[in-house]
């Protein structure tokens, strides 16, 4: 990837994060207003002020560092913003005196609006295009038309120029000059024997439902390795069925290709399929599922940190690279933005200072204890949290650069 595209990715990535985080803060702002809290400022960005839009109560301020934002709410514990020291704020409108159950809604509003944004984007885009690209949990494959799998199926069908994902591989067999049909390198087609005795099957020939791409591709990855250096004139043949493109149920009997040459280390030429939806309603519903799936995937990536696996997370450099990769497609870009919003939903609910999830627990404890936790404790907890997050960002950024 060129340096120019990475720089563009950084710019667009920052802009995307700014919008998503601003929407997050808007959730806090709306609930604060509903709770009748006195909101001094709704800030877009951090750092030095560029300009402000001043209303009777709340000032909307644009700041120089576009990496977040915040709501400034009146409190006895925090000094008013510069220039607003003389404003008289009734106690009932200060954060300190608002009912704790209202504070819980205020805390949850930011993550919740991120979830709503993710659901909205995923659902609208899926409903518009009625598909989901690169879905390893869907059946079939996208075929490289110049590779052996597509060539073999074209040859077997005889009257097609393009092999679509409705042609699904059920199994394959490897032979060589040294290891013939009676003693193959690998065989899970099992033409002439009971498939229960077959090697590591992709799918039983009696089955009418196609298996997902993930099972198929890992079967190839695991078993193409069985071609040895001393095997010569290696051939591969496939069994396959034609299936309904939406549901994956077979609409043909099992078919077999002729043998085609394949080299050691060569792939068969398949990549993840595109999940197709029958109508906009089904696609819209899938958008809801995708929003929650993205959140769960991110939560698993967080869990993997505890076993030293940082592969599922991206830092600023990783986000820039990912952003650059989706700039050529509006569909891909908005799906990427939806995934970021879903990730921020779950990220902000983590029980770790200074995130919203920790603030929720802190507020709940204070509700039970009927007193505030000490200011000293809060400062220490938030300082430790900030340092840990800074270290995590550094580690993930280094991983993105060298990876």
From TrEMBL:
GO terms for molecular function: metalloendopeptidase activity. Pfam families: Peptidase_M50. The keyword Zinc applies. It is a multi-pass membrane protein. It is found in: Membrane. Residues 13-392 form the Peptidase M50 domain. One of its GO terms (biological process) is proteolysis. InterPro entries: Pept_M50_Zn (IPR004387), Peptidase_M50 (IPR008915). The chain crosses the membrane at residues 6-26, 104-129, 333-358, 379-398. GO terms for cellular component: membrane. Its cofactor is Zn(2+). Keywords: Hydrolase, Membrane, Metalloprotease, Protease, Transmembrane, Transmembrane helix, Zinc. Belongs to the peptidase M50B family. This is Inner membrane zinc metalloprotease. The lineage of its organism: Bacteria, Bacillati, Mycoplasmatota, Mollicutes, Entomoplasmatales.
């Amino acid at each position: 990837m060129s340096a120019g595209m990475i720089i563009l990715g950084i710019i667009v990535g920052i802009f995307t994060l700014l919008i998503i985080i601003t929407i997050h803060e808007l959730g806090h702002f709306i609930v604060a207003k509903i709770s009748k809290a006195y909101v001094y400022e709704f800030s877009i960005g951090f750092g030095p002020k560029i300009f402000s839009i001043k209303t009777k109560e709340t000032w909307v301020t644009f700041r120089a560092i576009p990496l977040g934002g915040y709501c400034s709410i009146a409190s006895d514990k925090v000094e008013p913003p510069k220039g607003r020291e003389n404003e008289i704020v009734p106690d009932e409108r200060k954060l300190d005196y608002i009912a704790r159950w209202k504070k819980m809604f205020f805390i949850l509003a930011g993550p919740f609006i991120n979830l709503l944004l993710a659901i909205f984007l995923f659902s609208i885009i899926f409903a518009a295009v009625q598909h989901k690209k690169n879905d390893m949990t869907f059946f079939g494959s996208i075929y490289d038309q110049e590779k052996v799998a597509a060539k073999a199926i074209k040859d077997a069908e005889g009257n097609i120029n393009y092999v679509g994902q409705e042609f699904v591989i059920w199994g394959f067999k490897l032979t060589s000059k040294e290891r013939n049909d009676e003693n193959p390198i690998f065989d899970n087609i099992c033409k002439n024997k009971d498939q229960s005795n077959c090697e590591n099957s992709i799918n039983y020939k009696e089955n009418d439902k196609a298996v997902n791409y993930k099972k198929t591709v890992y079967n190839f990855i695991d078993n193409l390795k069985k071609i040895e250096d001393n095997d010569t004139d290696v051939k591969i043949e496939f069994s396959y069925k034609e299936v309904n493109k939406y549901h994956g149920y077979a609409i043909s009997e099992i078919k077999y290709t002729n043998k085609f040459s394949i080299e050691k280390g060569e792939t068969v030429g398949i990549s993840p399929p595109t999940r197709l939806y029958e109508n906009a309603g089904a696609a819209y519903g899938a958008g809801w599922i995708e929003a929650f799936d993205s959140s769960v995937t991110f939560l698993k990536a967080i869990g993997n940190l505890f076993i030293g696996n940082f592969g599922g997370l991206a830092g600023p450099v990783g986000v820039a690279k990912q952003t650059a990769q989706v700039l050529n497609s509006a569909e891909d870009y908005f799906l990427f933005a939806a995934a970021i919003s879903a990730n921020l939903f779950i990220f902000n609910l983590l029980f770790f200072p200074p995130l919203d999830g920790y603030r929720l627990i802190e507020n709940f404890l204070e509700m039970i204890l009927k007193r505030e936790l000490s200011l000293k404790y809060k400062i220490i907890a938030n300082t430790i949290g900030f340092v840990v997050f800074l270290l995590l960002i550094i580690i993930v950024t280094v991983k993105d650069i060298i990876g």
